[in-house]
Write a structure and sequence with these properties.
Length: 264
Amino acid sequence: MAVNVYAPHRAKILNINRQTEIDYTFTLEADVKPLNGQFLEVSVPRVGECPISVSDFGEGYLELTIRRVGKVTNFIHDLKVGDSLFIRGPYGKGFPLAAFLGKRLIIAAGGTGLAPVKSVINNFCRNPGDIDKLDLLAGFKTPADVLFKAELQEWSKKFNVQVTVDKGDSSWSGRVGLITNLVKELTIENTDNTRVIIVGPPLMMKFTALEFINKSIPEKNIWFSFERKMCCGIGKCGHCKIDNTYVCLEGPVINYVQAKRLID
Ligand SMILES: Cc1cc2nc3c(=O)[nH]c(=O)nc-3n(C[C@H](O)[C@H](O)[C@H](O)COP(=O)(O)OP(=O)(O)OC[C@H]3O[C@@H](n4cnc5c(N)ncnc54)[C@H](O)[C@@H]3O)c2cc1C
Ligand code: FES
């Protein structure tokens, strides 16, 4: 019998962590073994399906951090612990962890862009000897939008973690301003030994990459992760196509040498 590649698996919700008003992290019971940076197609019967990055995973579970923006994600946010989601995947290319070994890794993440890199940071948090140094530059719109607060504190014990918001308030004593300002302030002595990951909205990725290039980071040492609109996730429907690139198959993680031609 032919295999139905669109058939999803039921995954029970084990925990829901409300990060912000509109961003919830769902822990699902699942035996899926994704690569860091891959995504799943997540569905609710009779409602719809959407691509969501795996924000973390371990033995028998995985985590999805989902922003409420529309039909499917609104429905998912109303689910409770013990309810189920349906998943298929993992799909796409993840981050090339081997290329980061022994290097200085700088991660620039805007908003929910922190979700796909969370498992990368946790991996190096467990194995800090695998890299030379890790800098995380995280940007959010306001203090109320800051994701993974507990993890940011934990990561800052081992790594250079800097958080900035576009607009502060009376509760915020941290940085205010664009992530590109944080890049400008970084001292990068050995650019050949430095690797960069940039994840966030398209304009943020474009201008952050240009800032790193200003600092003489070679283009081949920079990776983007794209949140292009997708449908099938497996190269069949063409929804994600930019020129001749199927982002669902060749991405979502794409090296800047190729990715710079894909930014609208
Ligand atoms: C590879 C990949 C990984 C993703 N990872 C995550 C993740 O970890 N967490 C998360 O919250 N979201 C993620 N997204 C975005 C997520 O897929 C969309 O937010 C979701 O499809 C919206 O579905 P909906 O039915 O709730 O909204 P809809 O009712 O379909 O749309 C609501 C609004 O969101 C806009 N929208 C829909 N899809 C996208 C998209 N892909 N990018 C930008 N705007 C969109 C629509 O234009 C509309 O304005 C990812 C997308 C991709 C392609
Ligand atoms: S999402 Fe269908 S071809 Fe990429």
